[in-house]
C-alpha cells in the first residue's frame, strides 16, 4: 500500500489542460486552457488592485498607499537606472513587473484545499520567453531607432584597446544575444523549482501518514510539514524577487539601448 | 553502466552546480551586508547592484537545475 501511494507526480501541476472546446484558425486548434484562465485571473486581479488605488486623494487611504508604493518603486528604479528618459519606459516595465508578480503570487495561493488548483503561469518558458522576447525587441527597436548603426558600438565597450576588439566584440555579442534566453529562463526555472520542491515535500507528508509504521511516518510528516511552511514563505520571497529581477534587468537592458555604454 | 543509471548519476552531479550557486548567492548577500554595516548611508543606493549580482549568481544554479531536469525527464 505504501509503495502504491508513493506515486505523487510533482510535474503534474504544470500540465496545460484545455477548458471547454476551441476553434480552428489557420490549421491550428485554438483552445482556452487553464494557463490562459489564470492569466485572465491575474489581469482582472491586477485591474481591480490598480482601480481601487487610483483615487488621487490628497490624503491617500491604505489602498492608495499600496498602489503608490509600487508605482513609486518602479518609477524610481527607472530614473535611477536610465535617467530622465526612463520615464517613457516606466509604463511597460511597471505592467511587466505587476503582471509577473501577480502571476507568481496567484500560483502560490493554497486554493487546492477548496478543490481549485491554481496554475502558475510563469512556470512555463512559453510565457516567460515571450515576455523576455518583448523586452528584447524593445531594446533592439529603441537602440536602432535612436542610434542607427551606431548601436553596434554596444559590442565594443568604451576605451577598449584596438588589438583587443576582435576578442571583446564576439564575447559582448554572445552576452547580448543570450539575454532574452537567460531572462526568460531565470523566471521560469525559479518558479518551477519552487513548486516542484513544495510538491515533493507534500508527497512526503501524505506518504508519511499512509506509511505502515504509523508513528515513524507521522514524525516524517510533521517535520516535512514544518519545512513546507518555511519553504512556502521562501517561495513568496522568491516570487517578489524574481518579478523585481525581471523588471530590473529589463530596465538595465533598455538603459543600454538608450544611453549605449 | 546502464544508461538509466548514468542519467540519474548525471542529474545528481548537476546538483553540485546548484550548491555552488548557493555559495555564490550567499557570497553576494554576505558581502553586501558586510559593507552595508560599514557604511549604512550608502547601502540603499546599491540595492540595484545587489540584485544584479544575485541574478547573475543565481542563473548558473538554475541552469544546473535545468540540466538535472533535462536528464531526468527529457533525455
TrEMBL record, chain B:
<comment type="subunit">
    <text>F-type ATPases have 2 components, F(1) - the catalytic core - and F(0) - the membrane proton channel. F(1) has five subunits: alpha(3), beta(3), gamma(1), delta(1), epsilon(1). F(0) has three main subunits: a(1), b(2) and c(10-14). The alpha and beta chains form an alternating ring which encloses part of the gamma chain. F(1) is attached to F(0) by a central stalk formed by the gamma and epsilon chains, while a peripheral stalk is formed by the delta and b chains.</text>
</comment>
<keyword id="KW-0997">Cell inner membrane</keyword>
<feature type="transmembrane region" description="Helical">
    <location>
        <begin position="6"/>
        <end position="29"/>
    </location>
</feature>
<comment type="function">
    <text>F(1)F(0) ATP synthase produces ATP from ADP in the presence of a proton or sodium gradient. F-type ATPases consist of two structural domains, F(1) containing the extramembraneous catalytic core and F(0) containing the membrane proton channel, linked together by a central stalk and a peripheral stalk. During catalysis, ATP synthesis in the catalytic domain of F(1) is coupled via a rotary mechanism of the central stalk subunits to proton translocation.</text>
</comment>
<dbReference type="GO" id="GO:0046933">
    <property type="term" value="F:proton-transporting ATP synthase activity, rotational mechanism"/>
</dbReference>
<keyword id="KW-0138">CF(0)</keyword>
<keyword id="KW-0066">ATP synthesis</keyword>
<dbReference type="InterPro" id="IPR000454">
    <property type="entry name" value="ATP_synth_F0_csu"/>
</dbReference>
<dbReference type="GO" id="GO:0005886">
    <property type="term" value="C:plasma membrane"/>
</dbReference>
<dbReference type="InterPro" id="IPR038662">
    <property type="entry name" value="ATP_synth_F0_csu_sf"/>
</dbReference>
<dbReference type="GO" id="GO:0033177">
    <property type="term" value="C:proton-transporting two-sector ATPase complex, proton-transporting domain"/>
</dbReference>
<comment type="similarity">
    <text>Belongs to the ATPase C chain family.</text>
</comment>
<keyword id="KW-0472">Membrane</keyword>
<dbReference type="InterPro" id="IPR002379">
    <property type="entry name" value="ATPase_proteolipid_c-like_dom"/>
</dbReference>
<dbReference type="GO" id="GO:0008289">
    <property type="term" value="F:lipid binding"/>
</dbReference>
<dbReference type="Pfam" id="PF00137">
    <property type="entry name" value="ATP-synt_C"/>
</dbReference>
<comment type="function">
    <text>Key component of the F(0) channel; it plays a direct role in translocation across the membrane. A homomeric c-ring of between 10-14 subunits forms the central stalk rotor element with the F(1) delta and epsilon subunits.</text>
</comment>
<feature type="site" description="Reversibly protonated during proton transport">
    <location>
        <position position="58"/>
    </location>
</feature>
<protein>
    <recommendedName>
        <fullName>ATP synthase subunit c</fullName>
    </recommendedName>
</protein>
<keyword id="KW-1133">Transmembrane helix</keyword>
<dbReference type="InterPro" id="IPR035921">
    <property type="entry name" value="F/V-ATP_Csub_sf"/>
</dbReference>
<keyword id="KW-0446">Lipid-binding</keyword>
<feature type="transmembrane region" description="Helical">
    <location>
        <begin position="50"/>
        <end position="74"/>
    </location>
</feature>
<keyword id="KW-0813">Transport</keyword>
<keyword id="KW-0812">Transmembrane</keyword>
<dbReference type="GO" id="GO:0045259">
    <property type="term" value="C:proton-transporting ATP synthase complex"/>
</dbReference>
<keyword id="KW-0375">Hydrogen ion transport</keyword>
<keyword id="KW-1003">Cell membrane</keyword>
<keyword id="KW-0406">Ion transport</keyword>
<feature type="domain" description="V-ATPase proteolipid subunit C-like">
    <location>
        <begin position="9"/>
        <end position="71"/>
    </location>
</feature>
Amino acid at each position: 500500500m505504501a509503495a502504491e501511494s508513493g506515486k505523487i507526480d510533482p510535474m503534474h501541476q504544470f500540465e496545460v489542460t484545455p477548458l471547454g472546446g476551441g476553434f480552428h484558425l489557420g490549421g491550428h486548434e485554438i483552445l482556452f486552457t487553464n494557463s490562459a484562465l489564470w492569466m485572465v485571473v491575474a489581469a482582472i486581479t491586477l485591474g481591480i488592485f490598480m482601480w481601487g488605488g487610483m483615487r488621487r486623494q490628497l490624503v491617500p487611504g491604505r489602498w492608495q498607499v499600496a498602489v503608490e508604493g509600487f508605482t513609486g518603486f518602479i518609477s524610481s528604479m527607472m530614473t535611477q537606472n536610465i535617467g530622465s528618459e526612463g520615464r517613457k519606459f516606466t509604463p511597460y516595465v511597471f505592467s511587466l513587473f505587476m503582471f509577473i508578480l501577480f502571476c507568481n503570487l496567484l500560483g502560490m495561493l493554497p486554493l487546492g484545499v477548496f478543490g481549485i488548483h491554481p496554475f502558475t503561469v510563469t512556470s512555463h518558458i512559453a510565457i516567460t520567453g515571450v515576455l523576455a522576447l518583448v523586452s528584447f525587441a524593445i531594446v533592439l527597436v529603441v537602440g536602432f531607432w535612436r542610434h542607427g548603426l551606431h548601436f553596434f558600438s554596444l559590442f565594443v565597450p568604451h576605451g577598449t584597446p584596438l588589438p583587443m576588439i576582435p576578442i571583446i566584440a564576439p564575447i559582448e555579442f554572445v552576452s547580448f544575444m543570450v539575454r532574452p534566453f537567460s531572462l526568460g529562463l531565470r523566471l521560469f526555472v525559479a518558479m518551477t523549482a519552487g513548486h516542484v520542491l513544495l510538491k515533493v515535500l507534500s508527497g512526503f507528508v501524505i506518504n508519511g501518514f499512509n506509511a505502515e509504521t504509523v508513528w515513524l511516518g507521522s514524525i516524517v510528516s510533521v517535520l516535512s510539514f514544518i519545512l513546507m511552511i518555511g519553504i512556502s514563505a521562501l517561495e513568496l520571497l522568491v516570487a517578489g524577487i524574481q518579478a523585481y529581477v525581471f523588471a530590473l534587468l529589463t530596465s538595465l537592458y533598455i538603459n543600454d539601448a538608450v544611453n549605449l555604454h | 553502466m546502464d544508461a538509466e543509471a548514468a542519467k540519474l548519476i548525471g542529474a545528481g552531479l548537476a546538483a553540485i552546480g546548484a550548491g555552488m550557486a548557493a555559495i555564490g548567492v550567499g557570497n553576494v548577500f554576505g558581502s553586501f551586508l558586510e559593507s552595508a554595516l560599514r557604511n549604512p548611508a550608502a547601502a540603499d543606493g546599491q540595492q540595484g547592484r545587489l540584485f544584479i549580482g544575485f541574478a547573475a549568481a543565481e542563473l548558473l544554479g538554475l541552469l544546473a537545475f535545468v540540466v538535472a531536469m533535462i536528464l531526468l525527464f527529457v533525455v
